[in-house]
Amino acid sequence: MDISHIQNTAKALLTYGYESRKLADWLWKGRWNMSSALTLSVNARRGVNELYTPNFSNRNYQLNIYSVEPQLAFISGTVFRLQGSYRFDKKSNAPAYGGEQSISHALNLETKYNVLQNSSVNAKFTYNRIGFSQPDSATANSANSTVRYIMLDALLPGSNYLWSVDYTKRLLNNVEINFQYEGRKPAETRMIHTGRASIRALF
Fold first, then answer.
1. Beta strands in the chain (DSSP E)
2. What's the pLDDT at 142?
3. How far is it between the farthest Cα atoms of the chain?
4. Among 118, 20, 117, 103, residue whose Cα is nearest residue 68
5. How far is CA 139 from CA 97, 148, 195, in A?
6. What is the four-CA torsion angle of 13, 15, 20, 25, rounded to 10 degrees?
7. What phi and psi values does residue 75 have, to the nearest 5 degrees?
8. Helix (H, G, I), strand (E, B) or coil at 7
9. 27/46 Cα distance (integer angstroms)
10. What is the spatial distance between Cα 11 and Cα 53, in angstroms, rounded to a whole number?
11. CATH numbers and ranges of domains, the chain
């Protein structure tokens, strides 16, 4: 197991005034190799994320963040890996900046399969149920507000579905081709599909 602390403070002078950011995290990671094929790990986080811009008060926030994620992984040599996890996230904005709160329950399933020695397939599926609440007096009620975007990780309150498939194949000793597909369905909105293809030369 290991425990780490990260603290980052920045202040920038922009055309509309100065902007201050602060990030402070305590991270705890534990791992137990139950057997040669099964591994249980737990990640926990306690953090603070702040943004302060005097000239744009509707962008300001001070988030207290708590999260925990147990994960179970099955590994079969260097050919196959399957892992599943449950992640709990709670984010609370300071009352002075709106008092919003979000609670997230995410189930993740991820697998990787190496085909022979020159190809690999990665697939991932996530179901994320998010609850979001705020006081009636909150001013940052816009669906496009900064604090709402940060707290919900660019998703929406309700049931969110995310999935992806990644295929990589080495054509020659130093040339790889990669195909990526990502899909998402945030709450009641329509599905979003994204595809990418790339060729990479390794030297």
1. 2-14, 17-33, 38-52, 61-76, 80-93, 101-115, 119-133, 158-170, 175-186, 192-201
2. 56
3. 62
4. 103
5. 8, 11, 37
6. -100
7. -125, 130
8. strand
9. 7
10. 10
11. 2-201 (2.40.170.20)
